[in-house]
Amino acid sequence: MRILDPHAHAQARSRLLDAARTVFAARGYHASSMNDVARAAGVAKAGLYHYFPGKHALLEALHEDLWAEGAERLQSAPRPQDLRQAFSYFGSQYLAYFAEPRRAELMRIALNISVVEPQLLSLSSGAIMPRMQEALVAYFAPCFPKGTPAQAVLLHVIPFIGSLFYYQFIMRATCPEAQLPATPEQYLGHLVGIHALASTPDKKAPRRDPSSKAASRRTVTAPPRRTRGH
User: For 65-84, how does the pLDDT look when each residue is reduced to its tens digit (9 = 90+)?
Assistant: First the structure.
């Protein structure tokens, strides 16, 4: 597609994605149509197809924008001193990021899709996920021993992110307020403590001084040699 005015193109694309997000949130992705999105955006259906070839392309673009912004923020984040600090900073940024209504709405759309058709969600987010994982590894890897494989880093980090997601989009939507932590910060502090302890890399035991090791051994004396009587 030839773009004559990049700024106007970006604005039009953003308006269409805003309309798609609103429609998907109100009607559900599977119950929505391209006609619904075009009507909400105030454009002809042909105008919508000029930017997006179908409903799946809209969903993919929504995911791309959501996670690309998150990856950029993580890449510019201050480097943590240790794993506890990394979890604490990342967790506070995650909760603040998805407290914004537009992003929270997108996550709820994704959650509803995952219940009905998880494979579709995987395909829609597949293009941006490798970039997001690279950003996660780059941020958390310095907290692990040098040479730790990227997959091993993610095995420690993904459960922490899953716990944040569960709190933000499941617990807060379904649990009575009295059963929730007093503040998100309180929950985050508890979560950081658990995951930092569980994910702290094992350190080699310090080598003992050979001389002290020898000194600690029980001294064994040889029995006196028996001699023949004269």
Answer: 888 888 888 888 899 989 99
